[in-house]
Amino acid sequence: MGLFQKISQGREFLEEILKILYYYRGRVIFSFAGVALGILSICIIITTIDGANKKAKDIFEALGPDSIMVWGIGERQRTARVRGSTLTLIDAEHLEKIEGIYDSVKTYYARRPTMKYKDRKWQSRIIGSTINYFESMSWEFQVGSPFNEDDYKNAKAVCVIGSKVYDELFLGEDAIGKVILADRLPITVVGVLKEKGGGTGGPQIDDRVIMPLTTVMGRVVNDRKYLSGVRLKTNRDVNGTVEDVRAVLRRNHGLPDSAEDDFTIRSSQDIMKFVTVISGQLLLFLGMASIVALVVSGFVLANLFYLTIQERRKDIGIRRAYGASKRGILLSFLFESVIITLLGGVAGILLSLALGGTFETLFEIPMLFSYKVVVFALMFSFVTGLLAGFRPALKASRIEPIEAIRG
Amino acid sequence: MISLRNIKKSYFIGERELPILKGIDLEIKNGEFIILMGVSGSGKTTLMNIVGLLDKQTEGEYKFMDVTINGLDDEKLAAMRNLHIGFVFQQFFLLPYLNAIENVLIPIVYSSKQIKHPREKAKALLGRFGLSERIHNKPSQLSGGEQQRVAIARALINEPDLILADEPTGALDSKTGGEIMDLFQMLNDEGKTVIVVTHDPKLASFGKRLIRIEDGTISEDITR
Asked: A13 and B95: CB-CB below 8 Å?
């Protein structure tokens, strides 16, 4: 026999429960708020973990699983924001000879000069790189093409601009063949990149001007020795290659065994690992918080409910006299508690949607909302309501109508 | 409609047996209006609870609407109360968070009977009892007599065969109490079976049949 046969008039039943909740709102609000907070943290956990995983996957895909990045600055200097590089052009040439390396993109991050076109100005980052930069970063062109072999060899003043730079300087005009001024150096635009947008590298990713490495080193910064970084691709075992890279650089830099690396190596696996560790810690911290919040609110709900039942003995007696069976009473009290927690759950979901943006900008963790979040959150709140409501509901159902009505 | 055969009811306090009903034989037919009178402790309320399927006898056979009640489980008893009996209590027992019309609708929530337009029906009942202006009032905004009339409307919403009223005038002044009794008379005239349980000798003048309970037995049974 279905339990729902005990309660035939669904609409009246629900209306009654909502009125009861409103009548006892002073107490209901505590359980409601507790559940809302618990569900809020569950939502944040799920969305941030999904977001972090997606970010990791994006980075992984953008870089390719076989990438190794080398920067000419040690871990300690990086955190201290010391400028200057230890990675030389000669280092890079040596690295390219390591077994398994089949692609190498050398980059030089120059300062941020003011770009001028007509009367418009825009400050953007200049990056010097090799011709394969675009292909290696799988970057597509709106118009134009990469600079060519000739440009590179002769250090010609040509550039490819990111979509943000294009929008700021050209406002939709045709840019190919136009000359922009970077401080006093006139540069000819040969290509405009497609927008990559937020996601992988933040909004700055489209705000860049890429020129031949030779031009940047020779004519923009006048530094003929050092590079900012090299990105290598290997068709060998990545970790093995990383060790070779480290060995080559330590030898070239003449580091004694006791010294720390004065450079940094990251493989795409490292980045993946880093994100996984972060999301693991988040899961642990927020997971505990949300479970504590849910358990506490469950107890609060159960206890307040238990107290209320004493107060509602007459109510229960009347319902029993008018045809509610024990199971009918059990069911209606369970419903009551589940409705409280479900409402709390919905509030938690809405809160997390509202706070999601803040959280994202505050901790720079992308959040990914999906139906999964809603399903999980509602499931958790449903179960909380069921567990918290069960004992009080059982007690309610055992109240005998004659006792309740008599006194 | 109601047939009681040698009904006994005892409570046990530890080892000691405390007999409340000591063998009640009673036949009640459709359409009767009975005043069940007795002092407190006489067993009249226990008898009413058994008749109203709220309590079970210790001994004896009870048939209600030709159904032998003895072995029925909680679900069946609840369903029978819902379909066949309308209760009215001394303290009205309206639920404080529901307004008049919603209180009247309580029985239908648990009913297998499908009433087509329950709200309209509840409204009509309240209108009949002179409460048209009061249907959206909460119990706290109603006088005692009004609350009891709402309670009677609630007892009638499922069209029961039997109305069981336990001291329905006990919390009301005598004028209002008289009006409530007149209302029961009117319902009886329309064919409802009514049993009013009371200790108040003033109510003896109402009804068609007076049954007096003394010390767990029927001491007097007069049909007028």
From this structure: no
